[in-house]
Amino acid sequence: MRGSLFQDGLLEGEVQPRVHAYYFKQVNEQAMSFHHHESTEIMYMISGVCRIDIESGKDLDSLHLKKGEFILLDANVSHRIAMEEDIPCRMLNVEFGFERRPGAIPAIKDLIRERAFTDLLAVPFTYSVLRDPDEVYHVLKSLVLELDGTGTDSGMLVQLLFGQLLLRVARLKAEASEGGMPLAELYVKRSLEFLRQNYDRDDIRVKEVAAAVSVHPGYLQRIFKAQTGKTITEQLTELRMEKAKILLRQTDIPVSDISGYVGVASRQYFHQLFKKYTGLTPVEYRGSGELQKWSYSRENGAGNSDIQQ
Question: Are the C-beta atoms of 218 and 187 separated by less than 8 Å?
Fold first, then answer.
């Protein structure tokens, strides 16, 4: 099969991505020659600023790719990379196509269960420049390290990472497309993701959440309240109490230790919060239904509940 994202048969049968090349590249020259690949290409900017010139019919598009941005370039598109302002830039490139072969789930046809991926394939494009909130880079780097370690692109983990990479790219494309998610809504969405990933920590501050999504703390608090109806503190407390309910009902972790698992340093304060949130003490809540015991491991220390301004 060919290397384009937009080709007949891509969603038929067991079609898997096939990596043709992957490499880190530091650009030290003013401009290389125009060239093209028979592969779809992801060029991810790690540092510096590079200019990407793309030939589109009789037109020439010049794009400035900054750190944390990447370009998704379809197969057989003529392009060249140039250094800007005599400052070298560094990027991570992955070139890939597709072939029919049995392999690990997901095959390309399985990814269309997510609307963002269906939308990605619906309207062909020559290139798309996207801003990454570190999601794509971590998957891309993991993919390259796995390819380096195994020497093959047919392993299960490689295919799963590639599926994850395509889905994350598709989601970013959907968010950036015209009529997509408003910027304020995107900031709140990423703030919620940050809280879900860090609720067990005791030192979360509003300014840290704001820094994670690259906005001013005061602005984030205003749009967060407008979008969710809750303050960031209230949202964090709700998240912690819901996690505590799961741990009380579905594990045999001692009640006295639950507070540490959800980022509340004081056991007494945790009991007060939980009683206010559920109407029951943690002991009463655990006794109110059948306990489903799960195995667990203790990894995190304790902390307090309130987010600090």
Answer: no
Assign a CATH topology to domain 184-286: Arc Repressor Mutant, subunit A (1.10.10)
CA distances from 259 to 99, 222, 240, 263, 264 (A): 50, 29, 9, 6, 5
Chain segment 225-274, per-residue pLDDT in tens: 999 999 999 999 999 999 999 999 999 999 999 999 999 989 999 999 99
Domain 15-176, classified CATH 3.30.70.1170, yes or no: no
Given its phi and psi angles, is residue 86 left (phi above 0), alpha (psi -120 to 50 degrees) or beta?
left
Residues with Cβ within 8 Å of 103's Cβ and at least 6 positions away in sequence, in order, are 14, 16, 154, 156, 159
State pLDDT tens for residues 55-111.
877 778 888 888 889 999 999 999 999 877 677 889 999 999 998 887 666 788 888
**Start-end ranges of CATH 2.60.120.280 in the chain?**
15-176
Asked if 151 and 78 touch (Cβ cutoff 8 Å), the reply is no
